[in-house]
Every structure is written in C-alpha cells, then in structure tokens.
Specification:
With 299 residues, the chain is of the alpha+beta class. It has six helices and 20 strands. The strands form seven sheets. The chain has a five-stranded antiparallel beta sheet with strand order 6-7-15-11-12. Bound molecules: uridine-diphosphate-2(N-acetylglucosaminyl) butyric acid.
Length: 299
C-alpha cells in the first residue's frame, strides 16, 4: 500500500500528555485518496486500526500493535462567503484564529481547545456554552468500508462531547462551518479572552490531556476532586494538578502504569467522598487487541 508510514514511534511524541508506549505502525496519508486506500485495505483484510488526531485528548496505557492512522493533509482553509472549510488534520485553534482574522464569528469558543478539526468533530468540542454543532454546516468522512460521504448533521448525530464518530470507526476528513459576519477586532478580542481564561485556570504549561473526567450532571468534576482534597496528589510523575483538579498532568516522565493508578485513585476517592462515579472524558487506548497481521511486512 502506498501510504507513508513509520515504525515504533513513541506516543510521547504523538500525544500532548506524553504517556504511553510505542506506536508500532503509524500510517500518515497526505490526501483523501491515500486515506481511502488505507481504509479499503483494512476493510478487505479485516484489519482493525485506530485513528489518531493531534493526541490532545488521549491517554495511552500501552504499546499499540494495531496500525494507527494519522492524517497529514495540506493545511489549507477555504472560504466561500460566510462558510469556512478545513481538512480534519487542521488545528481547531488555528481555524478559530483564522475565522477571527477573516471577521467571521461563531468559532470563538474554540480558541484554546486543542486538537484537530477531526478530533473536534469526533468529540463535538465545546466550551463557554457553545459547541461545534452550533456552527457545523457539513462534514466529510469515510465509512468503515471506505465510501466517501459528505452530509449535513442530523438530529442524534452530535450531543454533549459526543458524536456518532465516537461509536463508529468512520474517519472524519473535513468540515465546513457556517459563520456570521462580525467585527474583526471584537471577534479577535473574544478569542484572546477565551485563550486567556483557560491559561489562568488550567495548567497549560504542563503536559496534559485536558479535562480527564466528564462533568457529572449538574456538577463539576474539577470541584469534586478539589473538595476531596486530591490536588497535588502524585503517583510517580503523574500528578493531580494543583491548579485545576480535573487536569491530571505529566510533570516529568510519567509511565502509563503511574497514570492509570492516579486515575483509579481519583475515581475511588471521589466515589468515597461524594458518592459520584466519574467517567473518563479523555479517550483511553490499551493494547487489548490480539496482535494484528501487519498490512505490510517489516522492512
Ligand atoms: N473548580 C474548583 N476546583 C478546581 C477546578 C474547578 O472548585 O480544581 C470549580 C471552578 O471554580 C468553577 C467550576 O469548578 O466554579 C467549574 O470549573 P471550570 O470553570 O474550570 O470548568 P470545568 O467544568 O472544570 C469545563 C470543560 C473544560 C473547559 C472549561 C471552560 C468539561 C469536563 N470541562 O471545565 O474542557 O475548558 O469548562 O469552558 O466539560 C476539556 O474538555 O478537556 C476541558 C478542559
């Protein structure tokens, strides 16, 4: 298969948290047809695979043997009137900043939400009471069989930090958002405020994967963790951030085992103190799958 690939890449280089082992097979298509070739080959061979974006909402707890797909499409934005289109591998924050520069309003919430456009689609990214679905006009993806589909979002496909991509192995390729005309300086100022807000309440200078747990209905995971007295708790180099309880950070070279233990401890102590079961907000990858038959032989 003529898809650029690399072997044994440490997840420390592929994720913002920097925890995890090796990515045994990393496939990096540079265009939609290469991505389609990869998906079709996997479908034909019955080969499971995983999809990686910018790795900013991901905790890897092992080496991953199955092929990992990471898009490296050209970083090009297209504007048509009030619409802005970006490929899935484009940075979500960069798109928000470009919209502000163009005097288009609607993506201000995205300032400070790390990750790719594909990741934003998958999680229905949001902050400050707004989320992607509010502005999403159309999106493109490949089905698990490799069929290319472009469609408008439909009811039930996107909700709080969830989209149908989370349950289906479909591959997001890109999206178009419909924005509103606004005053460039006002939009840029709002983007700056949103970036700043996160910078003051969140430990963005440490390696992190954003909020680790979902907010329970009507509550705040960060506050519960804080009230349980867990801020500053450490297992090796994995730490509950002293700045924001829902950020578990890597303050050096935290191992996957240390990180898993810290997550388990926080969950157990919040359950004891508040009777609340915290659910992961980050995606967690383990190597539970049987060893795959690689799509291409070892060089
Ligand atoms: N709080 C504490 N102690 C803490 C942390 C928070 O008392 O250690 C309190 C705050 O004072 C505030 C409340 O808890 O009254 C909520 O905290 P915050 O405003 O920081 O928001 P959050 O609910 O913790 C959510 C998102 C963040 C997003 C911010 C800003 C989730 C799980 N988290 O955090 O998203 O950046 O709002 O919009 O929905 C992420 O998705 O990775 C993420 C970090």
């Amino acid at each position: 298969m003529r898809v650029p690939h690399r072997r044994d890449v440490p997840f420390a280089k592929l994720t913002t948290l920097g925890v995890g082992g090796l990515c045994r097979w990393l496939f990096e298509p540079t265009g939609e047809s290469q991505a389609q070739a990869f998906i079709r080959a996997c479908a034909r061979e019955g080969q499971p695979y995983r999809i990686l974006g910018m790795g900013s909402n991901l905790v890897i707890l092992d080496d991953i043997e199955m092929p990992v797909l990471r898009l490296r499409f050209p970083a090009e934005l297209k504007r048509e009137g009030l619409s802005l289109s970006a490929p899935a591998s484009f940075g979500h924050i960069r798109m928000s900043q470009a919209a502000a520069e163009a005097g288009l309003s609607g993506l201000e919430y995205a300032a400070g939400i790390p990750g790719s456009v594909g990741g934003a689609l998958r999680m229905n990214a949001g902050a400050y009471g707004a989320e992607l679905i509010d502005v999403l006009a159309t999106f493109r993806f490949l089905t698990p069989e490799g069929e290319l589909i472009e469609k408008r979002p439909e009811p039930g496909e996107f909700r709080y930090r969830w989209s149908f991509f989370a349950e289906s192995p479909s591959l997001a390729l890109g999206m178009t958002v419909k924005l509103a005309e606004g005053d460039r300086e006002t939009i840029k100022a709002q983007v700056a405020v949103n970036m700043e807000k996160r910078g003051t309440s969140q430990p963005l200078s440490k390696r992190n994967a954003g909020c680790i747990f979902k907010n329970p209905p009507g509550g705040s995971a960060g506050r519960l963790i804080d009230q349980a007295g867990l801020k500053g708790l450490r297992v090796g180099d994995a730490e509950v951030s002293p700045e924001h309880g829902n950020f578990l950070v890597n303050i050096g070279h935290a191992s996957a085992a240390e990180f898993a233990e810290l997550m388990d401890t926080v969950r157990a102590r919040v359950k004891e103190t508040h009777g609340v079961d915290l659910e992961s907000e980050v995606e967690i990858w383990r190597n539970l799958e049987p060893r795959p038959t690689p799509l291409i032989p070892h060089p």
